[in-house]
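Consider the tokenized backbone below.
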């Protein structure tokens, strides 16, 4: 389908006036050929494979920015979950592989690299456990490496032993980086139903069903969506609101489809998916919370918020799938507290609580994202929060995730400052009544009845 001059003019206005950008171009790279029983050789193979495959990623992205006039906020790489290639090596500490990934990221000039990851939804193998135990060291000693662990799925249920272990790992990652506002925990996410093709960090991996190299693109555009909705009168019905969201999502996704197609061609990689998530930033006017308030909620978190978010999420998907035949990843509306100026304000005002955020995750794109909690929160409480969110994903058959930041040395109401797209995180109140028994029962939460689909 040809791009018309009117669409070009409209896209330029969205870029210059409404913060439209391509949030990320992410190259997924298979590392299956890098397995080796010697850690040094495997690190060399990983470094060489990544740098040779993605050597032109930044150059091509910069060229596309200039030619099409659409900013690309991040250039990223995702790789095969490292636990899947490390079994041949007997080393207990797998963080050298994270160091090789970090060196490759620095050499390429990219922003983040995802894939220091394991999938343990049904059980943990020896290599999975070694990788998970290595996460705090890996995140504390690298700048660009992100980590993710899948502990639940519709088909497997919830691995509760992994949930408790990840609660400990999250706290340790925060403790190891307390000098930089516990930033290590901001690069770690726990998943239910992890997808194989997400371009967004910290949860991007290159799944086993993917080809050797693929380009996945994440679009954004909360500012564009907010501007479009502000054109509607307050008397507009929710049906009219949904139609406006659909039309705007189509326009945003068209830009991503064009850029992903061209990037894949120039890089000689397979064209992957367009993730049409509305990903906010701390910039003024680039907020999902603001969209919900334009729809009519008094302040994000107030009554009606979950319904408004459900409407937004559904309409974004309906509009986006008409603009690309390759929509995938997560695709919906993100609600990361630290990365959204409106969410930060709502949390400060007390309108947005952890419990309300959990309710919102039932209908949004991911889950409890970039939430700072008091530093003295117990491991059992963190495990309970993870378990609750995993249950939402398993029972409802959707991807959910938890990215918590235990703010060591900080109390409720304090502010953690990360800068850049990660923004700032207000330390939020946490329900203290988790107890100690539930998180330590272990075993596996059985797969729900809706897992029997054969």
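A designed sequence for it:
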């Amino acid at each position: 389908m040809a791009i018309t001059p009117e669409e070009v003019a409209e896209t330029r206005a969205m870029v210059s006036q409404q913060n439209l950008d391509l949030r990320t171009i992410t190259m997924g790279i298979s590392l299956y050929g890098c397995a080796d029983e010697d850690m040094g050789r495997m690190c060399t193979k990983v470094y060489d494979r990544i740098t040779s495959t993605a050597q032109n990623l930044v150059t091509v992205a910069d060229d596309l920015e200039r030619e099409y006039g659409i900013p690309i906020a991040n250039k990223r790489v995702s790789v095969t979950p490292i636990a899947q290639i490390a079994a041949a090596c007997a080393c207990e500490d797998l963080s050298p592989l994270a160091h090789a990934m970090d060196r490759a990221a620095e050499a390429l000039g990219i922003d983040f690299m995802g894939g220091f990851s394991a999938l343990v939804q049904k059980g943990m193998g020896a290599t999975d456990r070694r990788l998970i135990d290595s996460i705090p060291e890996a995140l504390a000693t690298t700048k660009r490496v992100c980590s993710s662990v899948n502990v639940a799925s519709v088909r497997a249920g919830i691995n509760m032993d992994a949930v408790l272990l990840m609660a400990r790992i999250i706290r340790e990652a925060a403790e190891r980086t307390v000098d930089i506002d516990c930033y290590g925990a901001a690069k770690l996410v726990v998943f239910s139903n992890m997808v194989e093709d997400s371009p967004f960090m910290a949860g991007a991996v290159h799944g086993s069903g993917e080809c050797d190299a693929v380009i996945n693109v994440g679009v954004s555009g909360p500012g564009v969506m907010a501007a479009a909705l502000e054109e509607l009168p307050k008397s507009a019905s929710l049906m009219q609101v949904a139609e406006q969201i659909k039309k705007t999502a189509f326009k945003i996704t068209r830009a991503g489809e064009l850029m992903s197609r061209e990037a894949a061609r120039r890089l000689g990689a397979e064209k992957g998916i367009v993730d049409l998530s509305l990903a906010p930033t701390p910039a003024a006017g680039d907020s999902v919370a603001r969209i919900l308030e334009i729809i009519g909620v008094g302040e994000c978190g107030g009554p009606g918020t979950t319904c408004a978010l459900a409407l937004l999420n559904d309409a974004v998907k309906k509009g986006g799938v008409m603009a690309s035949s390759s929509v995938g990843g997560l695709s919906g509306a993100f609600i990361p507290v630290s990365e959204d100026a409106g969410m930060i304000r709502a949390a400060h005002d007390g309108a947005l609580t952890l419990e309300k955020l959990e309710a919102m995750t039932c209908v949004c794109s991911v889950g409890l994202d970039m939430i700072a909690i008091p530093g003295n929160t117990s491991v059992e409480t963190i495990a309970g929060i993870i378990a609750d969110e995993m249950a939402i994903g398993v029972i409802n058959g959707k991807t959910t995730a938890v990215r918590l930041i235990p703010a060591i040395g900080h109390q409720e109401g304090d502010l953690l400052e990360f800068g850049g797209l990660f923004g700032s995180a207000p330390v939020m109140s946490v329900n203290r009544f988790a107890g100690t028994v539930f998180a330590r029962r272990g075993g596996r939460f059985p797969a729900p009845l809706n897992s029997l689909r054969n």
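The CA atoms of residues 221 and 252 lie 7 Å apart.
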